[in-house]
Each structure stands twice: as C-alpha cells, then as structure tokens.
Amino acid sequence: MDKYDITLIVNGRSSTVSVEPRKLLVDVLREDLGLKGTHIGCEHGVCGTCTVLLKGRSIRSCITFAVQADGAEIRTVEGLANGADLHPLQDEFWTKQGLQCGYCTPGMLMRACEIIEQNPDPSPEQVREGIASNLCRCTGYQFIIEAVCAAAGRMRGEEQRPDQATMPTEAKA
C-alpha cells in the first residue's frame, strides 16, 4: 500500500511522518510520535479516551485518519503541562479526585480544555453536558465537574483559598 508523508504540528512541534492512508491518528500519535498519553478505548469513537484537540476542537483520534490531520495543529494531554508545572485542569483533577483508574483522564482533560476555552466560566451543568460525550466508569463525574469548574476559576485568575481547595464538597455547604 502507498504511503504518504504528512506533517502534524503536535503540541507546538512539527513532525513529518510517512503513513498509509488508513492509519488512524491515535496510532500515529502513540506509535510514530511516542505520545502514549492518548489512550485507545473502544476504537469506535464512543468512549472518548482518545480525545485530542484538532485545530482547537475535540475529536476522536481513534476514528480520524492521520491523513485528515495533515498540516493541522493537534494538542494532546502531553501538551497541557508547562514542563514540571501541571496545567490547572491536571492539578484540579488531582486535588478534587477527578481521576481514579485514570484511563479516561487524558480524553476527559482534553474535552474539559475545549469546554473552558469556549466558555471560561462554565456552570456545573454546562460542564456536565460538555463532558457527557466522554465515558468514565469510576468517578461518577461529580469530582470531574468540580475539578473543571475549579480549574476554570483558576484560569480566570480567581485563586481558591487553600483551605477550600481540599475540602470535601459537603463541608463547603
């Protein structure tokens, strides 16, 4: 089968890879570029573990051909942190216990990133609706919603008081 050279700008770095037309973006990210943070779940575009941002929009990389992304900017979970400094979403997922087994976390983080970029001050209901496309078997979503709302506040410059950042939800009422 013929191969095509494509250029992907992943997390700000340009890479040229040679791919067969049927090769999926998730496989290029993981196998060719060594970015293992994007997980493979259902391989049908249903679960959202493979979610990345393509031109700023969340897509399922398990049902997107790599050739469709030629020349495009792609952001993966590896592109969130600034060196050793976690992105506010990553930090709040940790602080608010928005992750348990961690399998859905990369896709959930990328979807949450898009939600906040589209609406810097989302309500819990808007977050719940926004992440509904990504499945999580462990957390029950509440802690994820709290983490996304807290991260949005931090990203707007509204730092939480340290004593509230780790307080259980019930104690804040």
Query: What is the topology, as strand order, of the major beta sheet?
Result: 2-1-5-3-4
Largest sheet: 5 strands, mixed
Mean pLDDT score: 92
Number of distinct helices? 7
Domain tally: 2
Termini, distance in Å? 61 Å
CATH superfamily membership of the largest domain, which one?
Answer: [2Fe-2S]-binding domain
Shape: globular
The CATH topology of the largest domain comes to: DNA polymerase, domain 1
CATH class of the largest domain: Mainly Alpha
Instruction: Name the helix and strand elements from N-terminus to C-terminus, one letter apiece.
Output: EEHEEEHHHHHH
CATH architectural arrangement of the largest domain? Orthogonal Bundle
Uncertain spans: 161-165, 169-173
* Estimated share of beta-strand residues: 5-15%
Radius of gyration, in Å, reads: 17 Å
- Beta-strand segment tally: 5
Instruction: Give helix % range.
Output: 25-40%
| Structure class | alpha+beta
Task: Record keyword descriptors for this entry.
173 residues; alpha+beta; Ubiquitin-like (UB roll); DNA polymerase, domain 1; 2 domains; 5-stranded mixed β-sheet; 5 strands; disordered C terminus
